[in-house]
Design goal:
The structure holds 2 protein chains of 2 kinds. Helix content of chain A is 69%, strand content 0%. Chain A is mainly alpha-helical. In chain A, helix 1 packs antiparallel against helix 3 and helix 5 packs antiparallel against helix 7. Chain B has a two-stranded antiparallel ribbon. In chain B, helix 5 runs parallel beside helix 14, helix 7 crosses helix 20 and helix 15 crosses helix 20. The chains are: A mainly alpha, B mainly alpha. At the A-B interface, helix 1, helix 3, helix 4, helix 5 and helix 7 of A face helix 7, strand 2, helix 8, helix 18 and helix 19 of B.
Chain lengths: 154, 511
């Protein structure tokens, strides 16, 4: 049976093995390799511990619980993640104000908000206020608009 | 000590700091009330804002947020039976039935008074315990610190609860693994960066905390939206709160419960790894037994004692958990781990030296925790009917805002868009682990303690000429390590022994 514990154990087992393989990429100079504790020591111990523990969990777990995913809106989750990734790519070239407003409006739309007034008034004022708070009051500057617009405004 | 207290007091009552406590409590209550978002997320969301502030002001703000978030969690437990955090689960046992009977206002008042008293008594204990423990811990060496970190890590697992011990240890190991990504501190060697320049500095603590808590909690709301029935329930709950007043008998009933629970809560909170959840359940169980047969039956149906006990213990434990943080620099819970991360980012190393080097910070945090309690009582309680309105904001608007604040919180610190992408990746992984019922707090603790543990171990080895003999040669180190081993093994032995004992008794009975 694919129970919570078993799925988790297999994933963490794979992670521990992958982590263990990557340890061999850690370069050690000859004099470093001779000392009792090197940059590889803790990772090696952790990798072995991770493998042993996940095997124990895999074998001994009697918990029959399975992931409770009934009624999950997977599409919304994926779309929101994509929006966050796009936000990450756009916040610098497009500027804080435009990219953030678009991110918030599109996220609300994805989650089912269709009223135009709410889409606009629950997002843009928040973005403007937050930018003002950070840049003007707390001194954390972030470019508000794309570069070409900033140049034009100068 | 008196000098220190006065110094702390003068720092804490400056207008800006008072304003921060008040703002912190308000914001904390606001965030804590949102189902799913607990103190860890609330503090994590605050960290970027506090970067521009003085260290003590920033910490005071976070202490306020902490208390506010716990209070907010109790509010949502009582009003809609949806505890924001594990620490307020026991609050819902009697708080929600009381609210269902139409006494929501009274339940909120009892919760506020209990939290206040628990926090007050614990603050006094903290005032006494922290300096004395700090002066003892000055004699600690790096070997002892290494042992203490090991104890901190094993304690997490020991208190994880039945059937979850291995999972908790595994998650701690995962946290330790994540902490090794980046440049190795002692030898300057890159580890697990896979050639990505953005990983050379390692994964920032804030990024991990935000992704694993705030962001993944928001994603869970996206995946599992509230049903219409739940929303109607919430609307009803906040529309009729009833009176906030308590009768004389009720106050009389609460007083002994509060004094017992606060002391119990404080000491449970001091234990690394135990924290508010265990304290609240212990206090609830203890009071139920002490109440006797007649009154014990009322527990779970809206008993005053049953609400006062977990609420008091929960708050007292929160103050208690500051003892190991402030004196040893070791966080005992996910929330204090966040506070530790914040302190380090200010360039302040918590631990015994904090008491000597930065007495202002040390004392002002303790004093402001007390002020936070007062603010909650006199400002938040009367405002609860208005703050409760937040429960009626639809999640279609709230969730994008939480996502935005989490992402931008990390971005505004590093100004590296790679961090945003990494956060999404971590948040997705955290959602997966949540669905599989793997606890995330031990991972955060493992991450925080991991780097410190490795540093101290290396220092210990350097001092001892690369010899591991310090483990058994220094009595203090050995003692702590033995305790650590015991915390790991004892719960297992006790459960096996009790099963064996019960079987034996049953066999004898059968004969």
């Amino acid at each position: 049976m694919l129970t919570n514990d078993r799925i988790g154990a297999v994933i963490l087992l794979a992670f521990s093995i992958g982590y263990g393989i990557l340890i061999y990429d850690i370069p050690l100079l000859p004099f470093q390799a001779a000392s009792a504790f090197t940059a590889q020591t803790l990772p090696k111990a952790l990798s072995i511990l991770g493998i042993i523990l996940s095997l124990i969990l895999l074998v001994t777990s009697r918990n029959q619980a399975t992931p409770d995913i009934a009624g999950f809106k997977w599409l919304n989750g994926v779309l929101i993640c994509i929006l966050m990734l796009i936000y990450g790519f756009s916040v610098r070239p497009v500027g804080f104000l435009i990219s953030t407003s678009l991110f918030l409006i599109l996220s609300e739309y994805t989650l089912g908000e269709r009223r135009r007034n709410i889409l606009i008034f629950s997002t843009i004022p928040v973005v403007l206020f937050f930018w003002y708070l950070m840049s003007e009051l707390l001194g954390v500057y972030v470019a508000p608009l794309p570069e070409f617009l900033m140049d034009m405004l100068k | 000590m008196l000098e220190g207290i006065l110094q702390g007091l003068t720092t804490a009552v400056t207008p800006i700091n008072l304003l921060m406590v008040i703002a912190g409590c308000m914001v904390g209550t606001f965030i804590g009330m949102l189902p799913g978002l607990g103190p860890i997320s609330a503090i994590a969301l605050m960290i970027p804002i506090t970067y521009g502030l003085e260290p003590s002001t920033g910490l005071i703000l976070m202490a306020g947020v902490y208390y506010g978030a716990i209070f907010g969690g109790s509010t949502s437990s009582i009003l809609i039976n949806a505890p924001g955090v594990a620490g307020t689960v026991a609050t819902a046992f009697d708080g929600y039935p009381m609210a269902k009977k139409g006494h929501a206002g009274k339940a909120l008042a009892i919760a506020a008074y209990s939290s206040f008293s628990g926090g007050t008594i614990a603050a006094v204990l903290l005032l006494v315990a922290a300096p004395s423990l700090a002066s003892i811990s000055l004699t600690f060496q790096s070997t002892d610190y290494f042992a203490l970190m090991v104890l901190g890590l094993t304690a997490v697992a020991a208190f994880a609860g039945k059937g979850n011990v291995i999972k908790a240890i595994l998650m701690t190991v995962l946290g330790l693994m994540i902490s090794t990504i980046g440049t190795d501190q002692t030898q300057g060697i890159q580890r697990f960066t896979m050639g990505v320049p953005d990983l050379i500095d390692g994964i920032s603590f804030l990024l991990l905390a935000m992704a694993a808590f705030a962001l993944s909690e928001a994603l869970m709301v996206v995946l599992r939206p509230k049903s219409d029935a739940d929303r109607v329930k919430e609307m009803n709950a906040q529309s009729n709160l009833g009176s906030l007043k308590l009768s004389k008998e009720e106050v009389k009933e609460m007083v002994p419960v509060i004094s017992r629970s606060s002391i119990l809560g404080f000491f449970v909170g001091v234990l690394p790894g135990a924290g508010a959840t265990i304290a609240s359940f212990l206090a609830y169980g203890m009071e139920q037994r002490l109440a006797g047969k007649e009154k014990g039956k009322l527990f779970g149906t809206g008993s005053v004692r049953g609400l006062a006990a977990p609420e008091t213990a929960n708050n007292a434990a929160c103050s208690g958990s500051f003892v190991p943080l402030l004196t040893l620099g070791i966080p005992g819970s996910g929330t204090t781990a966040i506070m530790l991360g914040a302190l380090i980012s200010y360039g302040i190393q918590p631990g015994p030296r904090l008491y000597l080097d930065n007495p202002t910070v040390f004392w002002s945090v303790i004093i402001s925790m007390y002020i936070g309690n007062v603010v909650l009582l006199i400002l938040n309680l009367p405002l609860i009917p208005y703050i409760a309105k937040i429960l009626s904001i639809p999640s279609t608007i709230l969730t994008p805002l939480i996502l935005f604040f989490s992402l931008i919180g990390v971005y505004f610190v590093s100004f590296n868009t790679f961090d945003i992408h990494l956060m999404v990746l971590f948040a997705v992984a955290a959602v997966g682990l949540r669905l599989l019922d793997f606890p995330l707090a031990p991972m955060l603790l493992g991450y925080i303690l991991g780097g410190m543990m490795e540093d101290n171990l290396r220092r210990a080895l350097l001092i001892n000429n690369d010899s591991w003999s310090f483990i058994y040669e220094r009595p203090l180190t050995l003692t702590i390590l033995v305790i650590a081993a015991m915390t790991l093994v004892l719960p297992y032995i006790i459960s096996k022994a009790s099963i064996w004992f019960i079987n034996r008794v049953e066999k004898n009975m059968a004969k």
